[in-house]
Design brief:
The structure is a single chain. The protein has one domain: HPr-like (Histidine-containing Protein, Chain: A, 2-Layer Sandwich), CATH 3.30.1340.10. It has three helices and four strands, in the order βαββαβα. Strands 1-4-2-3 form a four-stranded antiparallel beta sheet, with helices on one face. A hairpin with a 2-residue loop joins strand 2 and strand 3. The protein is globular, with a radius of gyration of 11 Å. It starts with a strand and ends in a 6-residue tail after the last helix. Pfam families: PTS-HPr. It comes from Blautia intestinalis. This is HPr family phosphocarrier protein.
Length: 78
């Protein structure tokens, strides 16, 4: 499992993010406080505070984890 911080401050970024992670074969979760949301659910993502960075958990190893990191790289907090 990998964990990174991502920023999804706008509706457009959320839409682009969901379109990107939906193509992954692994599970991806967003963690905001005590809430864990499926990152492939656009409605779930809108239920958390997106004004600040949230944690993203990628449940994959090896090449699948590398592929996931490539897909989400534009959203990683800098």
């Amino acid at each position: 499992m990998k964990e990174v911080k991502i920023c999804l401050g706008t509706i457009e970024r959320v839409k682009d993010f969901v379109n990107a992670v939906t193509r992954l074969d692994c599970d991806v979760d967003i963690v905001s406080g005590r809430y864990v949301i499926d990152a492939k659910s656009i409605m779930g993502i809108f239920s958390v505070d997106l004004s600040k960075a949230v944690d993203l958990r990628i449940h994959a190893e090896g090449t699948e984890a590398e592929k996931a990191m490539e897909v989400i790289s534009p959203f990683i907090e800098k």
